[in-house]
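Q: I have 319 residues here and want to know how they pack in 3D. Can you give me a structure?
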Amino acid sequence: MLGEVPPELGKLKKLEILYLHSNNLVSGSNNSSLRFLTPLSNCSHLQKLHLGACLFAGSLPASIGSFSKDLYLQNNRIKGELPAEIGNLSGLVTLDLWYNFLNGVPATIGKLMQLQRLYLGRNKLLGPIPDEIGQMASLGLLELSDNFINGIIPSSLGNLSQLRYLYMSYNHLTGKIPIELTQCSLIMLLDLSCNNLQGFLPTEISRFSNLALSLNLSHNKLEGELPASIGNLASVLAIDLSENKFFGVIPSSIGRCISLEYLNLSHNMLEGTIPESLKQNINLGYLDLAFNNLTGNVPIWIGDSKKIKKLNLSYNRLT
């Protein structure tokens, strides 16, 4: 389907759900193809609005603040800053603006107290993460990856007690991983990879007792010794700490990560031997310890493993 979205849709007073996903609904100039949203705001019963992958361009109008529940505008060509009126959507549960050309998020976004899922990845977002995001008490998923966000990770994110998925990879974040972030005890996936984060890996990482999917801190400038408390991540499936500046020995406590299937500690400055305790990770299928300063023998248990499919121990001092 192609052409303009008729403004007459705004006369459907009982409209609750509107799906226009995956069409060629380009209308007018780049500044006007979203103008139909203004009359659509008259549909006071509208709960779900799915407008993804429709080639919409231009800026979002202030009338966007009249919708509710679920708003999907992913994979379009929307540009500019989110209008401040977005904060009026007090009942909004899902806001999906992934893969657009947005460059700013207003502080009013912190008013979305019912929002559970916020997708802003693959945009052109600039500047720091607004502190106000930490006020979104119901937020369970925050996706900010693939942007140009800089500055520190705000400590206010530690207030997101319902947060389960946090994606902030491929940005320009600096500073330390805030200890406050470990207060998000329900988190299941944490991806801070491909940034410029510095400092130590907090020992309080043990608070992520529900981290069941992935811990990815790769391609940063983190340093120091790996804390023994990493062994408390008993449910995590994947740990990637590669391309950092970690030194010291691999803690034997990592053997307590009994669900681990993927472990990448390559391109660091780790030394000592490969811990025997790793053989307790009976589901380990990917092990990359390359480009470190490891010494000693390659453990016999590695050769006996029936699970390991990819093994990289190159560029060490193993015998």
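Q: Anything worth noting?
A: The longest strand covers residues 77-81. The chain has two helices and 25 strands.
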